Hints:
The protein is α/β, with parallel strands linked by helices. It has helices spanning about 30-40, 45-50, 55-60, 65-75, 85-95, 100-110, 125-130, 145, 155-165, 180-185, 200-205, and strands at about 10-15, 25, 30, 115-120, 140-145, 170-175, 190-195.
Amino acid sequence: xxxxxxxxxxxxxxxxxxxxxxxxxxxxxxxxxxxxxxxxxxxxxxxxxxxxxxxxxxxxxxxxxxxxxxxxxxxxxxxxxxxxxxxxxxxxxxxxxxxxxxxxxxxxxxxxxxxxxxxxxxxxxxxxxxxxxxxxxxxxxxxxxxxxxxxxxxxxxxxxxxxxxxxxxxxxxxxxxxxxxxxxxxxxxxxxxxxxxxxxxxxxxxxxxxxx
Length: 212
């Protein structure tokens, strides 16, 4: 165990996934969407308009099934046989681990922190996150689809507290969405707004010393 144990500021570190542990967001755009049309010949505008006008938000909290939604869209587009291909492309292209963030996770774990993922992903992608190995670094994975709650709902944070037995300033959220950071603070947690390449600031926020 690292000698940094006494420097850690929190007992639990809740890491957002997209844009934090996974470097798949650039200027607010998911990178898989920028190559989807070129690689598949299918319309990203049509898919995004269909999914992200409220349907995906329902899937995110377990009120709809992502595979069924994509299947309905593919049938509407006249390519029902390509529905699974769309999901596979999305998830595969979205796998861009942020190794600098994961290094912080490993160091925090070695120093005694409880690391968890706190994500607004639906159930299939939550399973995928674990299958891709992200869960190996974590005490638990809290996903909106499994919880039927999503950030910035304060009940989301209460659910995690109840599951772990830690509350308030014992917990810090690392997230790239300002509304989620503000909500966590309203709930009584510490929180840090993540931005690309601000890993040194994250390390300071959680109490890890600079590496030699």
